[in-house]
Specification:
The structure holds two protein chains of two kinds. Chain A is built from 20 helices and 24 strands. By secondary structure, chain A is an alpha/beta fold. The radius of gyration of chain A is 28 Å and the shape is globular. Helices cover 43% and strands 18% of the residues of chain B. The chains are: A alpha/beta, B alpha/beta. Chain B: It comes from Desulfoferula mesophila.
């Protein structure tokens, strides 16, 4: 862990990332088993735990998807161990199939514990959506807690393990980008002796949710007991005067934003703030008691009005039923996006008439005028030397050759950048992990309904193992007409190069069986073609070839290691790439810099001709085959 | 040296890959050791390479603040790229903000492709000056290139920050932190980069 001891060493205060604080708390709780599939902002949890795994005797793995990760962690808990599964918000949807059952069964009678960490991404900083996982706790009949800062994250996850053990159920800990990727000072607790937990799966008993109705009742009874505990939990705190007429109820990131806004408006002595960290089961009595003296309640949270709805529900039928509960549903806080100090200031301003003095009008006018004139966006694109740029170039050529009438379904990974303005905009539809093949298998049946154009689905190697395999099997079985392209760059590049089943090593960096995409696909009994994306003509030809075959499922593996993987393995550039200025047609053509758009290629502002940025060029040579005038030349580099 | 305001809001920004997170955390660790409450906010993900990235540091003697800086609330912006200084000013600028910018530009991909224009460099500099109470510029990348390692631009900029005496941290503390977190083989180069940075402003 990248922790740094401070001068006050006796108190063991260290500076940690939120995800590192969660790891530290889990280690202090004696976690034995941890599993996850990478997803921003959750990935650092398993990464950091993997560094501790060997020395502390913990099993740490990158599972092929979140459901598998939760099932592994669930089994470890049933065997009497302490387990942790981590995921981002989208991953929870994958895992819920198992988790909804696991709440009904409990964790067996071997004294195990299980914590499921879900890291939401309010504002969708690095996600396709900003879905709010807090709803899912109620749906899954599982308790959920939410830390309000990094220090609390360490303490709270420890508590979650205790709660899990005591009440024989897994516990959700909800994190969010500003916690997972925020850093602060954390006071550490003692680490237990590094020793492996003893596994004792009880072979005599069945752990299954049938009869579902009976177990449902038991799960509800368990939640009722936990609710009593949450009513007086130390994680819920009240700040401010006892007789406050305006009560702010905040959770997660809303707590620091709310406290800061109150401080900026000088309202700390007038307005109360109830920090809620136990979200489900909801501590209704606590809220009712605090609401008694209030004339108005404002709820600060992100993303959905979860707490807001639960507060209204709690007050319904009580003497505080007429107290207005304001927030998202009343329009005081926007319904989408993360909570910020400014949103808290706005909401409090609307209720109190107090405003914060920001920059003066003259400054703001000047700022607006200058930024309107000068500020341009950076855009998102693939790295120099990324094989995906070449793959999509080849796809673009192949699609054009088909007269443009090809339906392309995409998936989740670096190749998703295709849909941004700096990509090739080839993908027509893009959804969840594995959706490429599922969508294509539907489109691949459309010939029965009079639509008979080529269908191409695209996924990466990590995604292939995560959720494409079942869809692929289904497409083959149901004889869908489609081309499935695997962009195999030997990496889970987008989230930071975590190991997966195809790379030959595991989460700890130890050698592991390498499951080969090509062999696996061949075993499914469909034609498999392999091409190199950097051989753009060859890749285009291969794509056109598999599209022309017309019937059934055909697989094309475009195989080339991620440039960042290559750089690590081989410091030498494969080629020196130069632009022959005599052959370059400059703006007449512009194919390389304005269409291929590798960031290492630029248009010379004076001559308009192409130029290579030596510092950025990885020497892949892909651009050479893009130039219609053969003006980009590659020279072998002596090793 | 104490902070001009409490909380003191520092932004370290640049383009993905320039090392802004490294210097933000280094500064954060030292301030934490010196008894300040501290929170750092970062987002990482799709903007890692070539995109706009920034870290926000909330520094206080009173209590730990949340990681998000209120709009118009920056006290100091330290930037590895001048266009990014302007970008952060657009959200967090105010009449009293101090800025320290690397002079080296990093072109967005749209500019390389000839589809967008990077603002005129002198004009950009004047704009930053106009929007800052005090605007410092340092050729951090040029110095790093002279040292044979463009990668240490961030450390040169950190040196300039020390030279300008904008934060209550000392050269000695920075070196101590480096000694415990950097690979030993890279220490000498980074000390040099730091020294050259200090000299540009001192």
């Amino acid at each position: 862990m990248s922790e740094q001891k401070t001068k006050t060493a006796e108190t063991q205060k260290v500076f940690l990332l939120g995800n590192e604080a969660l790891v530290r708390g889990a280690l202090e709780a004696g976690v034995d088993y941890a599993s996850a599939y990478p997803g921003t902002p959750s990935s650092e949890i398993i990464e950091r735990l993997s560094h501790e795994a060997k020395k502390r005797g913990i099993h740490v793995e990158w599972s092929s998807n979140e459901k598998v990760a939760c099932e592994g962690a669930g089994a470890a808990a049933v065997a009497g161990l302490g387990s942790l599964a981590a995921m981002k918000n989208a991953g929870l949807a994958v895992a819920l199939d198992f988790l909804t059952h696991c709440s009904l069964t409990g964790l067996g009678d071997q004294g195990g514990s299980m914590v499921v960490v879900v890291c939401d991404d309010p504002d969708a900083h690095s996600s396709g959506d900003e879905t709010d996982s807090r709803w899912q706790a109620r749906f899954a009949y599982a308790p959920m807690l939410e830390p309000t800062n990094v220090a609390e994250a360490r303490e709270m996850i420890r508590y979650c393990f205790d709660l899990s053990r005591e009440y024989d159920c897994y516990v959700f800990l909800r994190s969010y980008t500003r916690l997972s990727h925020g850093s602060s000072i954390v006071e550490l607790g003692p680490l237990p002796e590094a020793k492996k937990g003893q596994a004792h799966p009880d072979c005599s008993a069945a752990v299954n949710p049938y009869l579902g109705k009976v177990h449902h009742v038991m799960a509800l009874e368990r939640l009722a007991k936990i609710k009593e505990v949450f009513e007086t939990s130390k994680f819920n705190e009240y700040f401010g005067p006892e007789d406050a007429e305006l009560l702010v109820i905040a959770s997660g990131n809303g707590v620091s934003c709310g406290r800061e806004a109150l401080e900026m408006l000088g309202l700390e002595d007038q307005v109360g703030l109830l920090k809620l960290a136990t979200l489900w089961p909801f501590p209704t009595e606590l809220v009712r008691a605090r609401a008694k003296q209030a004339k108005q309640i404002l709820v600060l949270e992100e993303v959905d009005p979860v707490v807001e709805v639960l507060v209204k529900d709690a007050l319904n039928g009580t003497e505080a039923a007429s107290v207005p509960v304001l927030g998202k549903e009343s329009g005081h806080v926007p319904m989408a996006g993360e909570i910020t100090p400014d949103r808290a200031l706005d909401a409090l301003g609307k209720l109190t008439g107090k405003t914060h003095q920001g920059p003066g009008e003259a400054y703001q006018a000047k700022l607006k005028q200058i930024t309107d004139e000068m500020l341009i966006s950076r855009g998102l694109t693939w790295c120099p030397g990324c094989p995906h740029r070449a793959s999509f170039w080849a796809l673009d050529k192949a699609v054009k050759a088909e007269g443009g009438e090809v339906y392309v379904t995409g998936d989740i990974g670096c190749y998703t950048l295709d849909v941004f303005p700096e990509g090739k905009c080839q993908m027509n539809m893009l959804h969840a992990m594995g959706s490429s093949i599922g969508l294509a298998s539907g489109l691949g049946q459309m010939h029965k309904f009079g639509w008979d154009k080529p269908v191409v689905s695209i996924c990466g190697d990590s995604t292939f193992y995560h959720a494409v395999l079942p869809g692929l099997v289904s497409a083959i079985y149901n004889q869908a007409n489609l081309v499935h392209v695997v962009l195999d760059n030997s990496a889970t590049a987008m989230t930071g190069f975590q190991a997966h089943a195809g790379v030959g090593y595991n989460a700890m960096g130890e050698a592991a069986p390498k499951i080969d995409v090509v062999k696996l696909c061949e075993a499914l009994g469909v034609p498999v073609t392999v091409a190199d994306p950097f051989d753009i003509r060859g890749a285009t030809k291969a794509l056109r070839g598999v599209m022309a075959e017309g019937q059934g499922v055909r697989i094309l593996v475009l195989r080339r290691a991620c440039e960042l993987v290559r750089m690590k393995a081989d410091k030498n550039k494969p080629y020196k790439v130069v632009v022959n200025q005599d052959k370059c047609k400059g703006e007449e053509c512009g194919t390389c810099y304005s269409k291929f758009r590798c960031p290492a290629l630029l248009k010379d502002p004076v001559t308009g001709k192409a130029s290579i940025r030596e510092d950025a060029c990885p020497g892949c040579g892909a651009c050479a085959s893009v130039c219609p005038f053969k003006a980009i030349e590659i020279q072998e580099v002596a090793k | 040296m104490s902070l001009a305001t409490d909380p003191y809001n520092l932004i370290v920004c640049g383009v993905g890959g320039q090392g802004n997170i490294l210097i933000a955390r280094l500064i954060g660790r030292i301030l934490a050791e010196n008894g300040y409450h501290l929170a750092i906010g970062e987002t990482f993900g799709a903007a890692q390479r070539g995109g706009s990235v920034f870290s926000s540091l909330r520094i206080s003697k009173k209590h730990a603040y949340g990681p998000l800086i209120p709009k118009g609330g920056a006290n100091l912006i330290v930037s590895l790229e001048p266009l990014e200084t302007l970008r952060l000013l657009s959200n967090f600028g105010n009449e009293n903000v101090v800025t320290l910018s690397n002079t080296q530009t990093a072109m967005p991909v749209g500019v390389l492709a000839g589809r967008a224009e990077y603002p005129d460099v002198d004009k950009l500099r004047r704009a930053i000056q106009e929007l800052s109470a005090k605007a410092l510029f340092t050729p951090a990348t040029d110095i790093a290139v002279e040292l044979g390692a463009p990668i240490v631009s961030n450390i040169v900029l950190l040196g300039a920050l020390l030279g300008a005496k904008l934060l209550p941290i000392s050269e000695e503390e920075v070196k101590q932190d480096m000694a415990s977190t950097f690979p030993p083989s890279k220490l000498e180069l980074n000390y040099q980069a730091l020294q050259r940075g200090i000299e540009t402003v001192a």
